[in-house]
UniProtKB/TrEMBL annotation, chain A:
The lineage of its organism: Eukaryota, Sar, Stramenopiles, Ochrophyta, Bacillariophyta. Transmembrane segments: none annotated. Gene3D superfamilies: GHMP Kinase, N-terminal domain. Pfam families: RNase_PH. Residues 24-167 form the Exoribonuclease phosphorolytic domain. Belongs to the RNase PH family. This is Exoribonuclease phosphorolytic domain-containing protein.
Automatic annotation (TrEMBL), chain B:
Residues 55-178, 250-292 form the Exoribonuclease phosphorolytic domain. It is found in: Cytoplasm; Nucleus, Nucleolus. The lineage of its organism: Eukaryota, Sar, Stramenopiles, Ochrophyta, Bacillariophyta. The keyword Membrane does not apply. This is Ribosomal RNA-processing protein 42. The keyword Glycosyltransferase does not apply. Its main location: cytoplasm. Keywords: Cytoplasm, Exosome. It comes from Cyclotella atomus. GO terms for cellular component: cytoplasm; exosome (RNase complex); nucleolus. It comes from the Eukaryota.
Amino acid sequence: MASLRRTDILSLIHLRSDGRRPNEIRHMTCHLGALPSTNCGSALPTSGCSGSALVSMGLTQVLCVVKGPCDVGRRSEELPDRATLEVIVRTTPFSPPGDRRVANPTTDRRLIEQSHLLQTALSASILLHLYPKSKITVTVMVLADDGGRLEAAINAATLALMDAGIPLKDMVCACSAGRWSAGGVDEIVVDLNRREIQAATGMSGGGGGTSDTIYLPVATMPQRGNVVLAQCESRLSGGAEAFGEVLDVAMKGCQMVMEIMAAAVRERGAGVWKAKEGKADVMLVE
Amino acid sequence: MAISPTEAHYIIESSLHDFRIDGRSRLEHRPYSISTKSNNSTSSSTAVSSSLILSNGSSRIHLPGSTTDILCSVKADLVRPSPNKPNEGVVEVSVDSSLAGGLDIVKNSNAGAQKRQLRERESTITSLLQRLVVPHAVNYKALVISPGKYVWRLCVDIVVLRCDGCVLDACAMAMREGLRSTLLPRVSAVVRSDDKDGFASQGGGSSNNDLIVEGDIRKALPPSGAEECPLVVTLSILSAPQEERIRHFCIVDARTEEEVCASSRVCVSVDPNGMVCGVHTLGGGGIVDEAMNEEFGVEGFGISSSMPMNMLSEVVNTAGGAAKNLYQLLDSEKFAGDSKAEDDGSGYGYLLQNQLIIQ
């Protein structure tokens, strides 16, 4: 059993388990309008969908659908000065590797927590005061989960909101960073996958109080330099400087994510503009 | 979905004259397109590469204009078979239509009731799929690796993102294509000499050494029998007065508006050889007929929620024919170079087919 495993070779040349360099994010693709929008008043009985986006970061794939702004169904939810933002995060039974349990979005604590985090992150950016007494519903469906569900959900929600034409202060971009010490060398990496998250959170969970492992999902508004979300649950021996270092790396990751998202938005915008001018690429479906 | 008597009259009358609201004839399907792992470059611009990479197989059924959009994932794992069926694999089906929202759910009811209705709908589709499709979906004997110890369990999860009528048909299509695109790695059991002592000697716990997994993806195969997986054709039976008597006739692949007008619906599952695998009749929702009949002064529009007895065999025959067309449609969709569909003269959905998509 003395043979080298693939991961050993990768770690020898300072690459991560999936072959990335420490400062590389996963391959990210964005698709705006993955589900074409339907008007609320159309003949179709499907619930109205104003915008949608499909984001995949590595093997994590998330579909987000935005509905609204529209009428608040219940009077008690209505706010007099701004819109109500409702966020639902759902998983599909096939999203997690292995585990077949379907989490109920109304009772599962992790999903409730994530939808709450998503809601606070998004309401920092949406100009909710423009739509008093109305409701915007953001539904996120996790199609495949390979770590970084929250980050992908935030990115997808931003793109879906842009697709729906809801005014935002800035794009909310999310990316994670982590740090662990492997073989005595501290390593800070960006955009962790599931295996790396387990490595970064599992070790600190066992009561090792002084361990330097940390997993930090961060959401920023990159063009303003604001951090809207940073969630860290591990005890750091390095203090604030250690945290700052990781946060810096995560914010750089967010910058990279923003470039990809902005490119996707531009591409979509160009398509819509062409269609408006009547020069769209028309395809005959056969 | 509520529909006014005038609309219902229009839909039924136009179907009677073999020209439905979207230009199809009575026994014509809409041009469904499929994207699976092997070909995710189907014609439509909206077809994202939808292969769910963490699953063993996946498919997406999609209509132009995205009125129907269904994802299906097939995940396989090894389980211990149930004691009363040691020589059969397991196929589990679940349907999630939460994102599709209230399809025909009454808007005014409160959230709890809506959720309950949604759950009921999902379980109806699941149980119908389980009865009509699952028993014939795969060769269960071929899913066994080691009798009594290891069998494949295929978990088929269907997510309905949107659906415009005939949910069951579209779900069955998604399931069939998902199963066909599934790749199971070749796993063989190691037969030990002490195996005859029974597995009490192994302490119940499965040791890691009794399976050999072939890691090469090129040697992975779809589950045997997946090609024979049946499809479901739902016929909606409409009734209208013609020449002093009530005439019943059926349409396939009804849209939601047409479904509402149907006096009853018959789901027939047909396998690729044309064999009928199951028939299920659903009492139609029916429309409020009195109001309509009063309005038009004629009797016989969407009268009862039952149908004449002698009609059932005719309906099943029609379904067989429609299923044959559907298999052809799906196959021609799979091999885009195949020009079979165009040779058929009328073509399928010639109005819908020429629908323009703006990129």
